[in-house]
Amino acid sequence: MARMKFLCDSERCIECNGCVTACKNENEVPWGVNRRRVVTLGDGLPGEKSVSVACMHCSDAPCMAVCPVDCFYHTDQGVVLHDKDMCIGCGYCFYACPFGAPQYPQSGSFGQRGKMDKCTFCAGGPETDHSEEEFKKYGRNRLAEGKLPLCAEMCSTKALLGGDGDVVADIFRDRALKRGKGGEMWGWGSAYGKPEQKPDAKKPEVKS
Amino acid sequence: MSKFVVMVLLAGVFGLSACGDKDGVVVYKQGSYSGKTDGKPWENAAFAGDKAKWENSIRVRGQAQNESKRVGD
Question: pLDDT tens across A160-190, in order?
Fold first, then answer.
């Protein structure tokens, strides 16, 4: 079973914001809500690096852990989704998320917050696939069309990779080996944990 | 008269009972997701429950991101 993951190759990202635009358009995300954004470190300086950031669909998602109404769930494909009918817009998930993924539309006067919105890995939500209600609440369900998130699929430099974790990791590994640098997988440690360290086999006794 | 008052009161109580807020969720269960269930991505008209077909589609799309495979080294 595929475990869906995002990987952004900061050596390739050119800060074109194509992914941001694609996400906005595909899911008809309202003004003020940014499911994806591009962050540039050392902007304007030699060696600046850009990274496309959205919900990473963490293996052990902190948003799920802090939600007081337990409105989050993991799909079998490893996508973190939530039920907007349950969300109370408290904002705990925003504070817990290391990527700043949860977004809140302003739903009224005095800065009143609406229900949380975030990247769905283009997998819709807990409504009937391709229904009008699903699109209105969560955006398009490309995964149910056998497609990957549009942000990754249309990335012009193929900096942003999305899909089965093993597949995207293999693509990135090949690249990093060929170019001989830029092997940092930004955010992977935080989102998916570090590679498991197996306990050492029985160490030989050292004779003194 | 008292019968009339009782009738009015009963009608009022019965009428107001319809003004309740509709629950957004079935039941809140502490510590576990209790919202609507989500279907599998292959359980729709496009794939008709064929998981293998869906997985193949995702695999092909995933590999399409590998330009080394698309255009050669």
Answer: 999 999 999 999 999 999 999 888 888 888 9
Domain ranges of chain A: 4-192
Q: What is the DSSP string of A115-149?
A: --B---TTB--SS-TT-HHHHHHH--B-GGGT---
Helix (H) or strand (E) holding B57: helix B51-63
CATH for A4-192?
3.30.70.20
- A174 chain-B contacts, CB cut-off 8 A: 66, 68
ipTM: 0.85
Helix, strand and coil content of chain B, in percent to the nearest 5, comes to 50, 0, 50
* Surface-to-core class of residue B25, CB atoms within 10 Å of its CB (0-12 exposed, 13-18 middle, 19+ buried): middle
- Chain B CB contacts of A69 below 8 Å: 28
Q: Which long-range contacts (CB under 8 A, 24 or more apart) does B54-57 make?
A: B54/A146, B55/A2, B57/A146, B57/A147
| Cβ-based contacts of B29 with chain A (< 8 Å) | 70
How high is the pLDDT of residue B26? 58
**3-class secondary structure, A8:** strand
β pairing state of A80-82 and A72-74 = antiparallel
3-state secondary structure of A156: coil
Subunit contact B43:A130, Cβ cutoff 8 A = no
Tokens linked to B24: 């957004």
For A47-93, what is each residue's pLDDT tens digit? 899 999 999 999 999 999 999 999 999 999 999 999 999 999 999 99
CB-nearest partner of A146 from B24, B57, B65: B57
Structure letter (DSSP) for residue A74: E
